[in-house]
Write a structure and sequence with these properties.
alpha/beta; five-stranded mixed sheet; globular; about 375 residues; D-Maltodextrin-Binding Protein, domain 2; single chain; eight-stranded mixed sheet; disordered N terminus; 13 helices
Length: about 375
């Protein structure tokens, strides 16, 4: 089963998950599709109740992470029943985890910023790496858990990397013969009217901070924030439009012969464009690229911890992990990705300081306000 578009919205900030135009037919259709698909998934995974004495594993995950065939194989091997609950946003994940006094799930998949929140809330249990031997199959970068913020606390490990995607530049090979090397190309006058940008306060301020060489794109001073706002106003001159959904971006890219795009959905978006017939390339700029890293974690309410650890270990088996590439267009943590180059400068997303300030400025930017109105 391929959930492609469903899993694409999981790292969209709250302020832009709903498209700017609520009357857009594409957007309405997409929301209906998501609802029907999630309801269908709930039916599929809940159809066979657990038998008496059978161990039950409660999984909270994103579409595409625990497909029915993957679940069925795990159940057969471990003589257990897996109950999967799917979410389509970080808020939905948070709501499910806080539905009762203790988590109603045994394992969950979340990005590093969210993992950090759950750890601070004392909702996760430390992991015994000896019970997850497949971590030794992972690329060195993902075995160095202490080097990735949010995965460890107090010398204990609380999450294991599973899948990731960078937010690089997507370009039309026919219009750009030599791959761009810098985020600054988005501002190149040569591409006026042929650039697409993602409609996001958080991600735009962060990637522009990288372009300007600021050391921490998630914690910006008021002076830096204003400088970035002015930089993003300059970017408007080159834009065809802003996009929210990957389907929108694909349609704009092909119909309007877009030359360059900030690829918020990374390699997933790249795969979708190529399936639509676009001749596109993908690069990580020299300044680096924002990236999200989703991980598996075990809750402190896990009733059968050996089974929960077995699930995390199972997710790292080559035959299972490769499905992320084949079905989702994502990278896994076992094999190098030619596009989301794991050795490149990837900046894993972290919680943003002063979100309200970014969103207030972003609203003025997309509304076309003049630079002199920015204080």
């Amino acid at each position: 089963m391929h959930w492609g578009p469903l899993s694409l919205s999981r790292h969209t900030p709250r302020s832009v998950r709903t498209p700017a135009n609520p009357h857009c037919k594409i957007c309405r259709a997409y929301r209906v599709f998501v609802l029907l698909a999630l309801l269908t998934c709930g039916y599929l995974f809940a159809a066979a109740p657990a038998r008496a004495g059978e161990s039950v594993l409660r999984v909270l995950a994103w579409p595409g992470y625990a497909d029915p065939d993957v679940v069925k194989a795990f159940e057969a091997r471990f003589h257990a029943k897996v109950e999967v609950t799917l979410v389509d946003s970080d808020e939905a994940l948070w709501g499910n985890m806080h539905a009762g006094r203790t988590p109603q799930f045994d394992v969950l998949a979340a990005n590093t910023a969210e993992i950090q929140r759950y750890t601070e809330e004392h909702m996760l249990a430390p992991l015994d790496l000896a019970q997850i031997p497949n971590t030794r199959r992972q690329l060195p970068r993902f075995q160095a858990l202490s080097s990735i913020e949010g995965l460890t606390a107090g010398g204990k490990v609380y999450a294991i990397p599973f899948t990731y995607s960078s937010m690089g530049l997507i370009y039309d090979r026919k219009q750009i013969a030599v791959a761009p090397t810098s985020m600054a190309e988005l501002w190149n006058p040569r591409y006026r009217g042929k650039v697409l940008d993602f409609n996001s306060a958080q991600h735009n301020f962060s990637f522009a901070a990288l372009a300007l060489g600021y050391p921490d794109p998630f914690q910006l001073s008021p002076t830096q924030t204003r400088a970035i706002a002015l930089k993003l106003i300059d970017l408007r001159r080159n834009l065809l439009t802003y996009y929210t959904l990957p389907e929108e971006a694909t349609a704009f890219f092909i119909q309007h012969k877009v030359a360059l795009m900030f690829g918020n959905y990374g390699t997933q978006q790249l795969a979708q464009l190529r399936r639509a017939g676009a001749d596109v390339g993908y690069v990580i700029p020299d300044e680096g690229a924002l990236a999200w890293l989703d991980c598996w974690a075990m809750t402190n309410a896990a009733a059968n911890r050996p089974l929960a650890l077995a699930w995390i270990n199972y997710m790292l088996e080559p035959d299972v992990s490769v499905l992320l590439i084949q079905r989702q267009g994502l990278a896994n943590t076992l094999t190098p990705s030619p596009e989301s180059n794991v050795s490149a400068h990837l900046v894993w997303i972290r919680p943003v300081v002063d979100v309200q300030r970014r969103e207030a400025l972003w609203s003025k930017i997309v509304s076309g306000d003049l630079p002199e109105t920015f204080k």
